[in-house]
User: Fold this.
Amino acid sequence: MRVLAAIDYWIMAIYAVACIILGLYYTKRASKNVDQFFLTGRSMPWWLIGASMAATNFSIDTPLAITKYVFTEGVGGVWFFWSSAISGMVATFFFAKMWRKAQVMTDAEIVERRYSGKPAAALRVFKGCYFGVLINCFVMGWVFLAVFKVLKGFTNIDPFWIIVGSAVAVTIYSLASGLYGVILTDFIQYGFCLFGSFALMYYSLKGAGGSEQLVATINGMFGENSGALSFVPSWDSASQIFKGVPMSAFLVYILVQWWSQKYSDGGGKHIQRMSAAKNEKHATLATFFFTIMNYAIQTWPWIIVALCALTIYGRDIADPEMTYVWMMAKWLPHGVLGIMLVSLIAAFMSTISTHINLGGSYMINDIYRRFLVKNASEKHYVRMSRVATILSLGIAILISLNMKSVGDSWKFIISFASGAGVTWVLRWFWWRINAWSEFSGMISSGIIAIYISIFHPEMGFGYKIMINVVLSAAVWLTVTFLTKPVDEKVLVAFVEKIQPGSPGWNYIYKKYGIKSGGFASRAIINTLVGILFFATFNFAIGGFLLTKYELATALGIIAVISGGFLLHRVSSESKIKPVEDHAKIQPEGAEYVIENP
Assistant:
């Protein structure tokens, strides 16, 4: 085992101290009230928000999971990750604006803006626990697992203590500065993350003899038709060594998975950042920036390192996720190794800081303040927010002790929420969705996912998703039509505030004489062009790195054209009104009043 040198430890220590100092600097500003603590007073620019989103999604677990997919399925296996870019583009042109207009702190809070009565209140508590505790802590759990895997290959010190030290540093600046410290440290951490991943790609390619030699070696080891370097799956993959993602699963990824998952309408941690943006325009730009950085630019270094590892270690590895760590130990010189470890620890700290802040926001905003202690001082709520973040961290550590694979955990948690995802999308676009739709969708989806995981573990991931989506839909659709619609006063207040412009609201538009606007139709076109831009830009990068130069050139030209067209459309649209111009949301529990319906 290669151990760290003194310079590597010093780099890691200096970085942790710097994060703490930065967090303490913003303590006073974040302590004013809960809105400042969890949402920065809604004052952040798009480039900081976008970098923070990307840093949080980078995480220490992501390169390990991508490495496993490349080892088992080839480059095409990364479609499990790439397909979420579709959700990113939908979030950019649909949900970023609507979430910012809603002026909520968490996605659980929106249920009392969208639904009515006791079912809405009960759903808010349930979702506060569902996202704030279960899903949120599960995500942190696999992040802890990933950092343990990385560190145990480099140090004679028990990795537990390094993890504890990093977690303490994260907790200090998160508790002190709230989302201010989280976003600003995210920006710095993301710079380290990008440097580290590109540095490892450079040294790995250098060790492999360059891109052309890497491609030649893989083709020599596995054959030119092995499927290892294929960007898209083949209908006839029976003869391929790397089966890639099956065509059935590929179709599920691009047609179903992006809307049937826990982040189908933007994502909890991203919603918090959208809400923290200066206005709707900044929320939109931030989400677009995140989508391109997260799913295209930062992904290819991981893929290239995984391919280089394939040429050294072969496919017969018990834990392919560890080969990413082995490549660091094999090729990086001391100093650079320290920076690389800092980049991964930065990714770990970025993700953990985001999720403990997010978990605290659910616990305080959607449970404690809303239902338990309603009239305390802002200082009391900030103090309890800090207690809630520590509680989230403790639960996550306990969950991590029972995990084995990052990649498998990813897929399980997506499957767990897949049946409910469509209800979270449709509530914005169809008036008939009610609180019971979401209740039944979440509960049935979780039960079905657990059943399949226990009794049919061999089932392909695509089939798991489809079965869950279909069976859950049968449940929540039945429940929707057997239960009462939402109070129309609430629906009118919601549609006037959000302005979704969807045909699914025609009943409300016509009955109350509300103009629908053209938001939905414009957003659909922008989303489709955005997806085209992402796909061509992403695979132009891949084509260049894997010496498919003609393909890279053709795709690059399409990317430039589609990107220019998208820029023209966005810039030519009418300016977005500031949030202050919209009707103000009534406080929780208040009666919604319709003037001149």
The chain has a mean pLDDT of 81. The chain has 26 helices and no strands. The longest helix spans residues 159-208.
